[in-house]
Amino acid sequence: MHSVKTALITGGSRGVGLRIARELAQQGYAIALLVRSDREAAQRAVAQLQQQGADAAFWQVDITDRHAVQQVLAQVVRTLGTPCLLVNNAGATAAAPLLELSDEQWQQVLHTQLTGTFVISVETVRLMAPGGVIINIAGASAHRCYPNAGAFGPSKAGVVNLTAQMSIEWASRGIRVCGISPGPIRDPDSHWATDEPELAREVARLPLQRPVSGDEVARSVAFLASDAAASFTGQMLILDSGGLNTWYMTEQEAR
């Protein structure tokens, strides 16, 4: 019999996903991490969470494979308990303009971010008790266009619409579904950390002229999962330093 609340996090072994896991561990959750390939990063993440005093474990699974997901969820329930929170953070990207995107790149991004979110959510919600919460991590590119985001943006826009659809269909089950759309993120494990000039250009276009931190995203997840957000469902929390309210500036205008 498990009495601790359990959070299931996809893509939680590094970067923003790991920060979400740490924040939820501080909130008293047992943490189940689902990863696709990087077992070493997952092992390190679990060790860090256990050092915080949290029950934590990871499972390697392709979240687009329904049968594999069903098997892993059964193991999660036996090991840590039935999830009351699912955070869909797994992602993929292919930075290229549309004319240069291959079919394989397009399919990989959409399959991971949209199909994966669909499959893991459907199978998890079958197990969730009333009061459960699903939080989908989308992105600012779901709401506006960015250069070289020809696959990433449309896939995240699909996640936004899927969030609304889930919230309507599963409200009768007592399940809330929300999402977060972060803008440019500065995080040691993120893409931006290795391309500071690009980050600076993006940030210069934002009204607040500051990037989002991984910890801000993590705290927002904790808020949406809490009783303080009991009336939130179907909404996207946009963390982008005001970028959605502006037009896209050219590089020259941002200088």
TrEMBL record:
It holds the Pfam family adh_short_C2. InterPro entries: KR_dom, NAD(P)-bd_dom_sf, SDR_fam. SUPFAM superfamilies: NAD(P)-binding Rossmann-fold domains (SSF51735). Residues 5-188 form the Ketoreductase domain. One of its GO terms (molecular function) is oxidoreductase activity, acting on the CH-OH group of donors, NAD or NADP as acceptor. Belongs to the short-chain dehydrogenases/reductases (SDR) family. This is Short-chain dehydrogenase. It comes from Pantoea cypripedii. The lineage of its organism: Bacteria, Pseudomonadati, Pseudomonadota, Gammaproteobacteria, Enterobacterales.
